[in-house]
What does this fold into?
Amino acid sequence: MAKTPARRRAREPDVTRDKLLKAAFEEMYRRGFQAASLDTILARAKVTKGALYHHFPDKAALGYAVVDEVVKGLLLERWLGVLDRFTGDPLTALQRTLQYRAANPGPHEIELGCPLNNLAQEMSPIDERFRRAVNATFDAWRGGFARALERGQAEGSVRQDIDARKVASFVVAAVEGSSGLAKSAQSAAMLRSNLTVLSEFLESLRPAARTRGRKGAAKRGAAN
Amino acid sequence: MAKTPARRRAREPDVTRDKLLKAAFEEMYRRGFQAASLDTILARAKVTKGALYHHFPDKAALGYAVVDEVVKGLLLERWLGVLDRFTGDPLTALQRTLQYRAANPGPHEIELGCPLNNLAQEMSPIDERFRRAVNATFDAWRGGFARALERGQAEGSVRQDIDARKVASFVVAAVEGSSGLAKSAQSAAMLRSNLTVLSEFLESLRPAARTRGRKGAAKRGAAN
DNA sequence: CCGAGTACATACCGGTTAGTATGTATCGTT
DNA sequence: AACGATACATACTAACCGGTATGTACTCGG
It folds into this structure.
């Protein structure tokens, strides 16, 4: 029943899929998953409904793909990127990451918060598969922090009497909470303030200077 | 055009309004504000649409009222109640509150998270009035914590070198983040773990034992 | 160079949504 | 007791939603 095709489109399935993912991410970031309108996503991506339903079986699948293929990479690069590349002690690396995130928030981070956390809060109780996808990303994030702290413990730059995994989990929670409250207050200053206090908490995880340190004893004293 | 009324209802406007607020809160807590269906709320409250639109001009107004009249009181009682009644030092009061919240989460706190945070994350970028209502509640919460910490500083049970308001803000952020991640992980253990680490952070806010304390010197050493 | 599967495009559909129009029973006031 | 305001109840609507049916153009293996 289709009439004459209005425009001749190049057939580039990967490009089309990427445009859909990108547009879906933006719309989901702004409105949330449930309130994100497929028609709006389609208009933004300049793609038709036929193309969408060729690449994804339904709206939920599009959402899962956004988490797995867009949000996950974004977040892990944001929060583990410096950690992986920086060669110094992990607490300093973490503090630098916090400072960088506070000084250079993403384009809409104050206004819209963290896209992963938004989806987590909205979708966790409603869609189990969504929850699993989101939580897997959080797990990778927590795991990255935990490994860094354990490395610090092995190297003697992090106190031995802390549970690295529990502290890592808390740090992620504090980051997300800080971002969420800053969003609610629409205040970049509040984000900076919260992350600064978190950085001071991290400072308290360094071994006491005079303790019999095994390997790398005292040497660092920088606050942020 | 209405036919004969099916049932003779007592006219109790305050009761009807309360039923609407309660049902709207529950539905908003489960699905979020935007996805909350008025018809579902009406069915749950056993109230008709005519009654709803008599008491509220539109759906948004119902949402604002839920924040101001249901969520606000719930949260402030939950997090400032103990603090206001407990007569000991504020850090201990805060730690007890954390421990109590970890051990006795609300009926759906793990599954659904914090109703205030849910609305904050969903509605802040979308509806400015919603954001203001939510943020006012957060402000009261932060203010309650800040006053407690300042009192502790005046009494000598809290370190002088911290900014009470910034720390209070951080603690609220950490609480909300902890609750949000626990919801995403569907794990009461994660909530407990996160709040325990937060409690240890609070412990670090006590003055060093050997410092020349003015009033209440050392006496407390309890961890949670 | 041709058939078949891929990659779209368009039109349509049933269900749900917030909101409205209209009617009526009850209550407070005088 | 009557009258106006209040507190509902019912029926309806227009817009939007995700999803589908169907048609076609492009691409690629043989």
Summary: The two ends of chain A are 65 Å apart (CA to CA). Confidence is low (pLDDT under 50) at residues 1-8, 211-224 of chain A. Chain A touches chain B at residues 30-32, 34-35, 111-113, 117-118, 120-122, 124-126, 131, 134-135, 138, 166-167, 169-170, 172-178, 180-181, 183-186, 190, 193-194, 196-198, 201, 204 (CB under 8 Å). The CA atoms of residues 48 and 95 of chain A lie 45 Å apart.
